[in-house]
């Protein structure tokens, strides 16, 4: 669906009002917009939105402008600013202790601009690392724990419930599987993917 920037608020209002009027809001397990779309189908949902909104969606672009694979940002990457890089650190199953957090903060202060960002995969990004200190940064002990070049399975593991069994399962899988492509391993007790994009299958 293509809309102009000034139409976004009114469109969102129309969608919310449709969910308010027709959504399964009395059933806590199914009180989500996705279940209404699942019940109606995309065509009916789109028609109802257009009717409620009072406008018609633009047709799709002639070609997909997004021509890159999903990026997890783990690794070392040059920034647009000359001489600066950002480091994506893999945080296995998203677990950070207080000491880890303080150490991440120290690395951000010493090597970057004091800024830390987090991804939907629960990994950390330290931006604005100068070329001149990059090699020293890569020798920091914390990067042995939170690496910039993890394996294909470990780099995309998400544990929403902080379950210790996940680490055990991963150890078993790493011994049992031969991976050729990244695979998302998401341990959760719900059908909602919390913003996670699907990854390619493994062989």
The amount of helix comes to: 25-40%
CATH topology (fold) name of the domain at 75-145: Alpha-Beta Plaits
Strand line-up across the major sheet: 1-2-4-3
CATH class of the domain at 75-145: Alpha Beta
Helix count equals: 7
Report the uncertain regions: 194-203
- Overall geometry comes to extended
Structural class: alpha+beta
Tell me the strand percentage band: 5-15%
Structure description:
Helices cover 36% and strands 12% of the residues. The protein is of the alpha+beta class and 203 residues long. Among the domains are: 5-53, no CATH class; 75-145, Alpha-Beta Plaits, CATH 3.30.70. A hairpin with a 5-residue loop joins strand 1 and strand 2 (84-89).
Features:
203 residues; Alpha-Beta Plaits; two-stranded parallel ribbon; extended; single chain; alpha+beta; four-stranded antiparallel β-sheet
Would you summarize the structure shown here?
The chain is an alpha+beta fold and 203 residues long. Among the domains are: 49 residues, no CATH class; 71 residues, Alpha-Beta Plaits.
Draw up the topology in text.
Blueprint: H1 8-22, H2 33-40, H3 42-53, E1 75-78, E2 84-89, H4 98-111, E3 117-118, E4 124-130, H5 131-138, H6 142-145, E5 157-159, H7 165-176, E6 185-187
Parallel strand pairs: 5-6
Antiparallel strand pairs: 1-2, 2-4, 3-4
Helix pairs in contact: 1-3, 2-3
